[in-house]
């Protein structure tokens, strides 16, 4: 899949369709190992950066979503952004949940990248051994990182460390606050939070100088916009969230589900080996379904399956199967 990046860049260059801005906010499922989210997603983030470097025109901009900034690979990604762009900014959007580790790396004023350097970065992106080692925490692969540490100045390392500490401290403080409020949520603090939430729309409208469109300036006719929800066209917000259950569960519940699932599958394989029955035969630890009315051995009989209804029986007989045992006629 990562080789698609090379093809994407080649096609864009052949058609001279370079970009003014590239946004990259992808992620992968890390719910079963949330503590290693940074390592698991680092290859994706690096690939997004490589794609952007191959697609952007001179002066273009990059928006790259990342998470915690603790690993050498993350340091390398930030260093590359700083080296390829006039400015590199790491920020957390105002509306991003303070308790998660999401941050955005902004690159402003893209310079240029030599073909040899881009090809080298693509080769690193396609190095499965490197990324498998980084994800697994292999010390040798972690030391390889992407960019040698010796290339990075002391000033950059200091700035990166301060950035990492700042965002991790903000996240830790907010998680501790949530735990405190979970036990005791004062009414006054609730009022302050609600007042702050109500102020955001007003500030947003004032800052961007938003105004109501005249009827003749609208692109979409008014009747095409559903107004039964007070003009709210966001389907996920059209219903109250209070009664909507948490379908994904918590991290601990998902991990427990995965453990129980693996345990159940292992037990099923053990039972298939210990006590094979008419429906399944163990084959190297795998349960394999039997065909038709095949018995365990010579002379053994298997009870014929029952027809569930007259309609089922008629349909089966129409297919050339007759009788209660579903034998071919």
From TrEMBL:
InterPro entries: Adrift-typ_MeTrfase, mRNA_Cap_2O-Ribose_MeTrfase, RNA_MeTrfase_FtsJ_dom, SAM-dependent_MTases_sf
Catalytic activity, as annotated: a 5'-end (N(7)-methyl 5'-triphosphoguanosine)-(2'-O-methyl-ribonucleoside)-(ribonucleotide) in mRNA + S-adenosyl-L-methionine = a 5'-end (N(7)-methyl 5'-triphosphoguanosine)-(2'-O-methyl-ribonucleoside)-(2'-O-methyl-ribonucleotide) in mRNA + S-adenosyl-L-homocysteine + H(+)
GO biological process: 7-methylguanosine mRNA capping; methylation
Positions of region (Disordered): 223-303
Pfam family, one: FtsJ
GO molecular function: methyltransferase cap1 activity; methyltransferase cap2 activity
Organism domain of life: Eukaryota
Annotated protein name in UniProt: Cap-specific mRNA (nucleoside-2'-O-)-methyltransferase 2
Species: Perkinsus olseni (Perkinsus atlanticus)
High-level lineage: Eukaryota, Sar, Alveolata, Perkinsozoa, Perkinsea
The encoding gene: FTSJD1_3
